[in-house]
Design brief:
By secondary structure, the protein is an alpha/beta fold. About 25% of the residues lie in helices and about 25% in strands. Strands 1-12-7-4-2-3 form a 6-stranded parallel sheet, sandwiched between helices. A 4-stranded mixed sheet has the order 8-5-6-9, with helices on both faces. The chain has a two-stranded antiparallel sheet with strand order 10-11. A hairpin with a 4-residue loop joins strand 5 and strand 6.
């Protein structure tokens, strides 16, 4: 570690009351940090779901409720309404979730041209956060590689009610089980604005986000 960095860290530790002679172990210092913010959800399940859907809609995401038995039919309806026929599916996605009559291409067989020219992608997620309307992917089975969330114009994500937590700390508690995984946080379609506040969609990811909420 450079002398300058060591000096800065020592000053921060001193300001926090953690002198070098107290807790050398970073894990001990981390555990000693005061956490007075809300770490556990307080909403009942139905209210938590309602907040999650409201946040997503605020971000211009399209949210559809369904059941496990009707999942395939719901996906069929969304794809047809958007005139999507050529879809890339994340490796590990359950085949029974996919309706008939579409050109589904497994992620492992898709190249960059396929990603650029497809009508959209379908993935699942690892956890979702009601308070922020955020979907989190750890890119395990069913969630696809990072590139699936960057190039295609449409992203359809399957979120199960039991995956939704209320607060950000609760989500990170769950994500701690996959500490080495790449994480992607999605809060609505990709959008940005320039200095004149002109909003542009699709700069950093899909312009459209469909969320199928399985209850």
């Amino acid at each position: 570690m450079s002398d300058a960095r060591e000096s800065i860290l020592e000053r921060i530790q001193s300001a926090l009351g953690h002198g070098r002679g107290t807790a050398e172990d970073p894990a001990v210092r981390y555990a000693a940090i005061s956490r007075t913010y809300i770490r556990a959800g307080r909403l009942d399940p139905e209210t938590r779901l309602s907040v999650f859907k409201d946040r997503l809609r605020d971000y211009d995401a399209h949210v559809v409720d369904t059941s496990s038995a009707l999942l395939s039919d719901t996906i069929d309806s969304i794809l047809r309404s958007n005139k999507q026929m050529k879809i890339i599916t994340a490796d590990g996605l359950a085949p029974e979730a996919l309706p008939q009559g579409f050109d589904f291409l497994p992620e492992c067989e898709a190249d960059i041209n396929d990603l650029n020219n497809c009508d959209g992608v379908i993935t699942t997620c690892s956890v979702a956060i009601a308070a922020t309307g955020t979907i989190v992917l750890t890119h395990g089975p069913g969630e696809g590689a990072r590139r699936l969330t960057l190039l295609p114009d449409r992203h359809l994500c399957i979120v199960r009610a039991e995956q939704i937590v209320e607060t950000v700390p609760e989500a990170f508690d769950q994500l701690a089980q996959s500490p080495t995984h790449t994480l992607t946080f999605i809060s609505g379609p990709s959008a940005t604005a320039d200095i004149e506040m002109t909003r542009v969609r699709g700069v950093h990811g899909p312009r459209f986000l469909d969320v199928v909420l399985v209850k």
